[in-house]
What does this fold into?
Amino acid sequence: MLEHVSVIGSGAWGTALALAAARSGRLVTLWSRDADQAEEMQRTRYNARRLPGVILPDSIRATASLKEAADRGQVMVLSLPAQSLRVMTEALSPLARKGLPMIICAKGIDVQSGEFLSEIVADAMPGSVPAILSGPSFADDVARGLPTAVALAAPTFDMAETLARTLTSATFRIYPSTDLRGVEIGGAAKNVLAIAAGIVEGRGLGESARAALVARGFAELRRFGESYRARPETLMGLSGLGDLVLTAGSLKSRNFAFGHDLGRGLSVAEAGGGRLAEGVHTARILSDMARARGIEMPIAEAVSAILKGSLTIDGAVDALMNRPMKGE
It folds into this structure.
């Protein structure tokens, strides 16, 4: 059993995962790039900046030393923005032991290379074991110990089961899988679709329109996933449909909130209140990858065009509603 978990990234999600690991009985090292924040968390037992009101138990040690986190962890949880993953794993590579499991918790695709995040980790940290954790989960819910279920995929089922047991607790249930590509595609694509759902809500287009968009958006996600041989049960499960249902209907979702602001008339620069919405980065590369494979993803393409400023929201609605008629 893996007894010591290092969480790289002390944002709300990283802190929530550190709390989940602590509840499962693990010792946890929580790394922050900000030395002042690390000292404050260690001293006060709160992450007041990112997750106020939640007490950090003594089993969580906060540090700003990447070497300390690498030395202590028998498994590393990478709670980092998707577009920062390459830089951070390259920094970790000379510090981490070979064969170390690396659980990726970001949901996106690298915009520079078009690589999936498991490929980024495999490239930057040869010999490591990339895994993906994804599913319908808000940081605040996990931090407060509310019932949550997610999926975790690793190259072998034994490894996936070991990692799942390492983080599973009475309120945080993890389903093991070997479908890495399916789990990470679900997490990346649903963010783009959540922006679209937020636009519909913010524009006041109605619940019927949002339901139709979510259903047709899931059809796009499924087609894209199947082109990469993702398993149907994965796409229909927690990391695909489950995560889409959560993030396409709640302002607690950064991507939905970003789209909601766009729908209300805010600019791309103003939307989201400065909070990171991973779908903003993913939209273009997802559309490009789908087009290269001959996969129709009109909703994802519309989001990409809106973000680029080459299509208005009203123009996107007209284009989607007037597509050639065909069966589902």
